[in-house]
TrEMBL record, chains A, B:
Pfam family, one: PPK2
InterPro entries: P-loop_NTPase (IPR027417), Polyphosphate_phosphotransfera (IPR016898), PPK2-rel_1 (IPR022300), PPK2-related (IPR022488)
SUPFAM superfamilies membership: P-loop containing nucleoside triphosphate hydrolases
Domain Polyphosphate kinase-2-related: 38-259
Transmembrane segments: none
Keywords in alphabetical order: Kinase, Transferase
Protein name: PPK2 family polyphosphate:nucleotide phosphotransferase
GO biological process: polyphosphate metabolic process
Organism: Ilumatobacter fluminis
GO molecular function, one term: polyphosphate kinase activity
Length: 277, 277
């Protein structure tokens, strides 16, 4: 924590505060954190940062050298869909693919847990967004005891190795855990039930997961600690306030795209001064 | 043509005017047409119609019954990329996939011409956008004489059958030809050359295609006539003015989504009045 905690944090400090390390405790992260930001100013800044992300995406696409994979995890009603809508729809849709990973199909289950994931990795120049991901295989699988512990426990290393492969071969991996309080989840689930246009999204099974809240938090915390690497860092994003969440995600995307530093490729030779007839 | 050609056309008349029939002549379509619209008013209307398309997309996604495939064809600098950026990025990116079809890979060429296309057909609930498509196999392939005429000529029927299959099995197909004048293409290609950030997009080969302008127009006209069906209609979109183009595409998408008429699915039983603890 910086000395002047009452002053707004700068962008670097915010990302540092959200970044997961091997001793990160979710209990130390406040889902209602604002980093000293004013709401209206943060919304204005979000639009500016999102436009910068959009410009960087154009260059990423043009350069056609590296890709970016954004992984989104969180509980039901944690805001994964809203984050995708808010942040990604300011980008050129031709350069973005979004894939939601649900319960595996029979064919997917007949392979190792990374098989279906690898298939959706982005091609050079593109940004892929995973709404849920291979992390379900150390989260729900663990909490619901779907595979034995020795199997899911070894997956941390498989995940680290896989993500290092992606990074080394040209895909930058950035991962976000949307950190929502139990009270905020209650409120959002209730809103779903009460809104006729949203009610179809609600499954009574969502409440079973809510009963296992502490088990999920423990599983998230261990998974984040075990797999937040320089090649593929995790960020804990305060999720109760959408305007904070959106700005943090945009800042992190901008940071990692700047690290890639994509540039427009050179034109073909002898084009300078060419006149089209 | 309606009697009062000096009055703005209504939406139905615009779509009817753009719709391709078996006797459509591209020469009768004006790339600079405005349908009597005022520019500022049309831009405002575009935002309204795009929001309606966005609401229909939410229902399409929720209903999870039908999909929509949007095919975009046109010459280089015809505005395919700009149309995708303008129209599609008002939609939820989680429900949209965009795929550009370039020169086929060795593996793709080892199969029939619809093999790679079928692979990218949208799943239920989704909208897929094809930036170029299977139509290249009756366009560039014909103009550049890449396969014998008896082969590409039979493809019209294969395409009609394939698109009817998609429609019957749940995917509505809507196709847009972006109709740009030769002078406007000259202007846009020149802008690309003169803009350092755009120059990388320019290929000298683009000028070779321009020399074969009339051949391409003839190939487009025949392909449109042969494959504009009730199951998968073509629209000729006036492409010289972006604000006309965007509004026409949005109107057609809205029309075809309304034809699908997606509704939010019913909630699970016993949810009414449920209180989340």
């Amino acid at each position: 924590m910086p000395d002047h905690a009452h002053e707004p944090l700068d962008d670097r400090e915010v990302l540092a505060a959200c970044r997961v390390h091997s001793d990160t405790a979710l209990a130390d992260h406040d889902p209602r954190a604002t980093f000293g930001w004013d709401k209206d100013a943060a919304k204005d800044r979000f639009r500016i940062v999102a436009d910068e992300v959009s410009e960087l995406q154009k260059r990423l696409f043009a350069a056609d050298e590296r890709a970016l994979l954004m992984v989104l995890q969180g509980i039901d009603a944690g805001g994964k869909g809203g984050t995708i809508r808010s942040v990604m729809n300011r980008l050129n849709p031709a350069g973005v693919s979004v894939h939601g990973f649900g319960v595996p199909s029979d064919e997917e289950r007949a392979h190792d847990f990374l098989w279906r994931i690898h298939d959706h990795a982005p091609e050079r120049g593109k940004i892929a967004v995973f709404d849920r991901s291979h992390y379900e295989d150390v989260l729900v699988v663990r909490v619901k005891d779907l595979v034995p512990e020795p199997v899911w426990r070894k997956r941390y290393e498989h995940i680290r190795n896989f993500e290092e492969l992606l990074d080394d071969e040209g895909t930058t991996v950035v991962k976000f855990f949307l950190d929502v309080s139990k009270e905020k989840q209650r409120e959002r689930l209730q809103d779903r039930i009460d809104d006729p246009d949203e009610r179809w999204k609600f499954r009574k099974g969502d409440l079973d997961d809510r009963v296992m809240w502490d088990d999920y938090q423990a599983a998230f915390q261990e998974a984040l600690r075990e797999t937040s690497t320089d090649a593929a860092p995790w960020y804990v994003v305060p999720g109760d306030r959408k305007w904070v969440r959106n700005l943090v995600v945009a800042l992190a995307l901008r940071h990692h795209l700047e690290q890639i530093g994509p540039e427009y490729p050179p034109a073909e030779e002898d084009i300078d001064g060419l006149v089209v007839e």
